[in-house]
Batch of 3 targets.
Target 1
Amino acid sequence: MKATGTESEQRLDVLVATISPRLFEERYAFDRVDPTAPMPPGTFAWIMEDEGPTAVRPSDHGEWARLTLEVQSSLFAVGLTGVFAMALAHQGISANVIAGALHDHIFVPWGRRQEALAALVALSAEGAAA
């Protein structure tokens, strides 16, 4: 099934009010990998850069937690990344974002994962109240 993101939500106010962040239990690592090797099993994302591929995958020694916004956001939606990035930035939490066809996946420092989740839940509550 080809997903273009056009059938998902594009209105920023609706997106923010319904982001529904989900925190995953696994730690994740961003690892540079051999460009001639096949994608490692369990890889969440495989990103091709000029310098070589990066595998984002669960790892017992990973430094990152994964939060997924369960709202089905359109790839054409404007402003959602900026809004949740600012909510996390106000708490001093870095955010590395990977967008899929339907959801945004935010990687935050492992030790700040609960704070990040709380910040996103508060953002959504503010959006719903507006």
Target 2
Amino acid sequence: MKNQIKIYEKIKPFKKQIFVSGDKSLSIRCILLSAIAVGKSKIYNVLKSEDTFSALKAIKKLGVSYTLKKNYLEIYGVGINGFNNKNITINAGNSGTLARCIIGLCSGNNQKIKLVGDKSLSKRDFSRIVEPISLFGVNIKSNENLLPLEFIGTNLLRPISYIENKGSAQIKTSIILSALNTMGTTKIKAKKSRDHTEVLLKYLNYPIKIKKKKIYDIIEIKGLSDFKAFEYNVPGDISSAAFFMVLTLLSKKSELIVKNILVNPSRIGIITILKKMNAKISIINKKKYKGELIGDIRIKSSENLNSFNCPESLNSSAIDEFLLIFLVAARSKGISKFKNLDELNKKESPRLDIAIKFLRMLGVKVLRENNNISIFGNPNLKLKNKFHITNFMKDHRVFMMSVVAALTIGGEYWINDRDSIKTSFPNFLNIIKKLGAKIN
């Protein structure tokens, strides 16, 4: 089958350096903020995937021009409240980030916009966005808070005060983008989550204030302040690097350096957790770039991995990497415990449910109580069976996690839905093969 791969042996030892694609979160945020900047922005190393192409199609529908060159992307911003559109439909594809953020971006526009997405995105709950954005004065209509939905903004948006207690960067960013369109100051008490939007606005000298507390950040945004176009070189995505990090940890006699990765403290939960599990992993060559922290990640094969009782405080900084963390826990000594992972089931697929089913299929004991799970690790886990893995809801991270499992545990695997990686990491299999993996 064209959309299926076969893996029939574990990867052999390797020692390599690699680069991965540009960070998806930053790529989409750069595109959206460039659209409302004043002038021509240039974005280098932007991720070229279905999610970012959906973002580009969205701003084009809003009247923003762009040119995709060989080495960079040019976007001709129209300023805040500068969109020129009438009754359009925006297709967010599979991107929850784009779908939720575009509502905030367009909140100051009084033209009707219909928002649609693919089959997977259309099953995801949008109530968490409808509630805060409606408070600004945006009229949002939907069928039980699912896509498609229609919304009409207003150029008389009112600033709000809001408590974001889910630890969702998508909700927080949508509120911030709405706040840019208001005549006044919006205040957000936001549970800790990735903070790329705030960091980028700080770099752009936008009037945003951030007070960092232990669990929450207090954010104040003054609306209707134009900002100039900018240049940005997007660093590599740690969520993409994570697959190769875990591949190396669970392989024999291997070593890897992943170059030029975004290591923002709100994104490195996986490194913190893996270190606690006795993994040989470190960040080297750190440097600051326009407010963000960048570095190289060095990983070595790690035997004697330990179990870990993961505190809930690390959930948001590792939310996209838990499938891989569960895989490491399955190969570690002892019982690893994870709490309050309900956010995992609100991703592109019900990832917590899928992870439990996948691990049990491999013969790993997993106990679940509500959204808490315990994984009984087995360092000597070996499989001789043949597995057919159907990718539920075509989730790109499920596919890539399945590949890492196949290459490190052994057995014969037929893994469906390879096309799912087009949403976030089209180059994934090419890099895997460069490391020496045999994939048909």
Target 3
Amino acid sequence: MFLGRYHHTLDKKGRLTVPVRFREALQGGAYLVQGFDRNLMVLTPPVFERIYRRVNALSMTDPVARQLKRLIFSAASPVELDGAGRILIPPYLREAVALDGEAVVVGVGDYFEIWPPEDWQQQMMLLQDAEANARRFAALDLSPGDEAFSPT
């Protein structure tokens, strides 16, 4: 599970040091894809394969499905950790999200995201609005799902 937030730098070649806590999960490689919020997502092979199967099953006659396929697959890049625990972010993905020099690595459960610091700061401002969060997340069932759970 990918949790937490880390600030890292990219070197001149576009290599990003992966947080130590995330490295074990990436020993079998990973997939780097363009995210939905002007960010990048790093997916383990099992997660990428689940998404691939679901997206690939969508009808190619549906224009929205075709756009989703293009967004995810045209920018997907397999990555491997090097000996120093870094991944190489291809230039086209760095350009797509304006990633240069600094990055914020954010764990989001099954995968992690890579953000330009300015864009992550904007995201954090949105997430800190308690009233908006109450409205935004009200329809989601965030109960633990365990009947034995009791908040008291």
